[in-house]
C-alpha cells in the first residue's frame, strides 16, 4: 500500500502574522530535511511520535500493536511526502491527516473487522455483568476508574464518531484542523461529533450524576 501524501495532503492557508513558535520550529526542521539533512526528519519524529501513536491507539480502539504499526506507517508516508511539503499547513495537522487515513485503511480491512467483531462480543458480555453490579459512588469518582471507563466507551463508538471525538475532545484539535485531517465539511463534522458525544453521555450517565451531586454539595458548602 503506497500513498504519498505530497501536495495532496498539504492543506491550510497559514496565519498572516507568522507561525507560532512550535510551528516555526517544525518548519525549520522541514527545511533542514528538504536541504538533504536527515536529522531534520528525525527531530520531527521525536517531537510528534507520541501524539501520533496516541491518536492511532484511540482510533484503533486501544490495540497497541496495530497502533504502533499505524504510527510507523504514518511516518513512512510522511518521510516520502515531506520533500514536497510546502508548509501551507501545520506539520502536525498534515501528519494527523496521514495517520487518520492509515487508521481508516486498517479499520476498513476485512481482518480488522473480524477481529473487532470478536472483541465486541466479549465487551457486550462484560458490559452485561457490569450492569448487573453497578459501581459504588467511590468507584465512580475514582480518577483511574473514570479514565478507564471513558476510554472504553470511546472505543465502543462507531469508527466515524470515535475519530471525531478523539480529535476534538481528546486531542483538542480545532474544527478547522479536524476538517483538514478528515476532509469533512463543518456541518457533517459537527453532526457526527454531537452523535458521538450523545452516545457517550448515555453510556456514562451513571458516572455523571455523582459528579454533579458532588459539585452541588461543594457549591452549597462554600456559597450557601
Word description of this protein:
This protein is mainly α and 224 residues long. The chain is 76% helix and 0% strand. The protein is built from eleven helices and no strands. The protein has helices spanning 21-34, 39-59, 64-81, 91-108, 110-132, 137-141, 143-156, 159-170, 175-182, 186-203, 205-223. Helix 1 crosses helix 2, helix 2 crosses helix 4 and helix 4 (91-108) crosses helix 9 (175-182). The longest helix has 23 residues, at 110-132. Residues 1-16 and 118-133 have low confidence and may be disordered.
Q: Looking at the structure, what is the overall shape?
A: globular
Q: What's the assembly state of these chains?
A: single chain
Task: Kindly state the percentage of residues in helix.
Answer: over 70%
Computed over alpha carbons, the radius of gyration is: 20 Å
Put simply, the count of helices is 11
Low-confidence stretches: 1-16, 118-133
Q: What value does the average pLDDT take?
A: 79
Count all strands and give the number: 0
Structural class: mainly alpha
Head-to-tail CA distance between termini: 63 Å
User: What share of residues are in beta strands?
Assistant: under 5%
Biggest sheet details: none
Order of helix and strand elements from N to C terminus: HHHHHHHHHHH
